[in-house]
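Message: Study each token:
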Amino acid sequence: MFGENELRRVAEQVLAASQADETEVLILAHDTQLTRFADAVIHQNVAERDQALRVRAVIGRRTGVASTNDVTAAGIAAAVQRAADIARLQPESPLYLPMAAPAVMAQVPARIEATAACTPEARAQGAGAICRLAQEAGLAAAGAFSTEERELVVANSQGLWAYAAGTLADLNTVIMGADSSGYASRTDIDVRRIDAEGAGREAVAKALQSRAPRDVAAGSYPVVLEAYAVEEMLGYMSYMGFSALAVQEGRSFLAGRLGQQIVDPRISIWDDGLDATGIPAPFDFEGVPKRRVEIIKEGVATGVVYDRQTAAREGKESTGHGLPVPNTMGPMAGNLFMAPGAASREELVRSVGRGLYVTRFHYVNPVHPMKAVLTGMTRDGTFLIENGEIAAPVKNLRFTQGVIEALNHVIAVGVHTVLGRGWVGGNRAPDLALGEFRFSGTTQF
């Protein structure tokens, strides 16, 4: 990768060249390699190395932003000038805050050398294992195996310097038959913990099990949601309601409900960017150290995440969840965890009795943020549960369901968890058995 010294050099050039009242430097650098496969054959290996520079200039109370990946002296000078020119054309902001002051950053083990050094041959070995398993079963495999090293820098004219390096390995596959499919994914900062063959066996088993699916009527059913589905649901909960800005503007399902019991006491959700079992990051895009935030504790709504702007409105301190400034989204909880329980998947299925088993969701969209209503499709393994056992595959269904409502019908929480790659980090969630989940439509596949 580029390394701290090289990125410091770029940041110092920006700050030295800027004549603005305040200047901020944000650098996102990455070195990403990806091995892609389709029809059970590896067909592509690509690599990308980039250093994206973002300059924020403040003149009075006016802000301008310019970005480039040309970090030559000329490219840096052009970006600095462009940011200042844009600032001069902007109206003054009544919400302007001085840039963040220097802070002590926690040390978090986010960079794993084995991941940074992973070779195309190693990724091909993992992808090849999945392809062989699919071929042996007479199925087609598609997916991708990527490894990434990334660096983040936030520096400003107040003297702040924040640098973090991390790695990420991500594997996903869909195994398909004539009328069936199965899915599996693995995500970790350490590529040595990516079990490609295990993922392949999981997806193949689902594809074989879901052959010849039956029709099932739309309606409300008890469900077992695998952790893949719960993790995606958790990410959308963050998008709709875990931001202080959403609460301040009255558009969050947590607005007016902090301190109240809103879901089953077995549900606890928190955000922790320093937890190495997720995808850790020690600070946010404003250079503010991340803090653990309890969002729902034993069913009680306890908090939301703040950036500097939303914290200032309430006389509080940022929790380290700021996105690049300026932004209209507000802060984002991007390192979420939902507490696991003790039930195995077999115990979850038995606890439902009769209902549906859902592997994952697809094409999810918010419908009503104030009620946390989502809609989407089941995909890659949907099954009928009868007499406490998986009885038959069924065709996919559309769901339209309020998440808070669903989490008030918890039957049991699973011990198995999945880490998923989120929008700005990663989320870890368990399997769930829920007493009621609303399916609003049927499909032909």
